[in-house]
Amino acid sequence: MTFLGSSEAELLNIMLNQSLLEEQSVLENDMVSKAGATYGDVYNTASTSIILLNECIDEVDRNSYLFMQYLSQTRASLMLALLSAVRKHETQTYMNLRQALESAVLAAYGLSKPDFSEHGSITEDKMITLNDKVKSKAYSWLQKEFPTHSKNIKALKDHINSYAAHSNFLNSASTFVNKGHGFVCNFFDTNNIFLIKSQIWITADTSMGLLMLITDVVKKYPLISFIKGLDERSNILLSEVRAQRDNLKELYKSKHRD
What we know:
Layout: H1 6-33, H2 35-39, H3 41-55, E1 57-60, H4 65-86, H5 90-112, E2 120-122, E3 128-130, H6 134-145, H7 147-163, H8 169-172, E4 176-178, E5 183-185, H9 193-220, E6 224-226, H10 230-257
Antiparallel strand pairs: 1-6, 2-3, 4-5
């Protein structure tokens, strides 16, 4: 037996880790490329809803930069949520959805309060100090001016906070299998088509809900304008999301009847 020196062992360890990362990346890319075929209409609706949120704005006022900055984060977070779901990373799906909710609320608030002073301040040495009260102010504003949207966002955030925001017995089980005679620790979640479809559907529902929030806020604070035909495209997607919700409910009932 030949023993490796410390530098050789470190190099071998790096090579093995890189190989593992590359292998997982290839598997994830394959899952994404096959997502449409694997999950069907629910995936297509989710991806289309995210695309619509990315394409919905026609013109912006220069004072809307805070809104656009937060909206950019909302869009990215929703895309990451969808990618996480089809790549079988449930906890990351929900964490990205939470980020999307928070940034969308701040984006909406930015239409009402477009001045940077609401969000932070710049010191004499050009350092940015964040306003740690802006989130609570934004949620209070939302509850007062758009109570239905506020209620829906709070319900989903509460669910995420109770289940996925912190490690617990339930969400840690997604990558772990106890076979009785041994344990299996996986990088990917256990393959459960129903749960993955549910996560994809929640992403679509969240995307459409946030789009409806933004369109309602813009009616009162018109710092941006939307593309033509947005209402028609939104209504089509909303009907698809509702139909898929009903289908998933029926599938859940049939699974538990069996």
